[in-house]
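Form 7-S
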Amino acid sequence: MGMLIRRVKDFICSILVKRLKKRIFLKRNTRWKTYIKTLGMYMRFHLFGRNVRPVCLCGSFFRPHGRLIYTPVYDILYKSRYISMKQKTRIGIGILVIILAIAVYSFITSFEEPYEFNVSQATITEEENSISVDVSYPVLPSEYEWVNTHIKEIVTQRIDRFKEIAQENRQARIDTDPSYADEEIERGPLYTLSMSYEIDSFDETYFSTLFVIDEYSGGAHGIRVFETVNANLETEEFVTLSDILSYSLEEVSEIVKENVKAQLAERGMGDYESIKDSLWLDEGAAAVEENFSQFTFTDQTVTFYFAPYELGPYALGTFRVEIPRE
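Output:
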């Protein structure tokens, strides 16, 4: 029985070795072994106690019927009858050039830093008589100049409007009390405009920023207002609420109302029912697009901004309501 098993093993082994010889040039003392050892791809197989050392440049794969096939590159480039030696040389050189180009590119790009969406800051500081201006705003890279132009227009219009109103009020004071002009130097600026910004999003697709504007141009007290800029940098269009939010205006209205009521309770304003007559939440947060025009967004949330007098009296201050985009 043992003799029969050995004979079967020898028969199977001889068939396998013949097939390997046919496919992969199984020869011990040829330049193949030296060449493959150099590339670190020398492999050793043990078949039924016999040492078989097949040589392979390309690795192996299995066909659906399970037969193991080795395909050396040498067999393709140097044993083919259908490619001339000149063509074989060109193919070999081409492969080497491609490999070298990939290696050089990988080496160079390994030192490159990823592109950063940098924003610089511009400032405007002016002080004349009783009027003071302190404004800062973002400046995007030159490829987004259309956004920079829009931001500059917002800043310029806000400053011009403030100066016009402040100058009118200043002149009215001087007309009423001529000594006011002499006291300005000692008193310092009376009418002030301060403008800062917060960036919520800036990537290859979107830019979203908030301007916080504090202004006093006369009257009982100053006022804080909000201005936002939301841009699609790919399409070069300004973003509307429907572009980024999956809710309807009616749903947004209800969410904002509930959030504001919760904020009022956190501020110690008492129960909403007891103070609702002094608010105008139903009008200021009604399902009208204009009520939600001041917003910024990230990849996951949208934040709405409400200035004093938009949802209630000045004493209630401002409100920020953040909701998920989906």
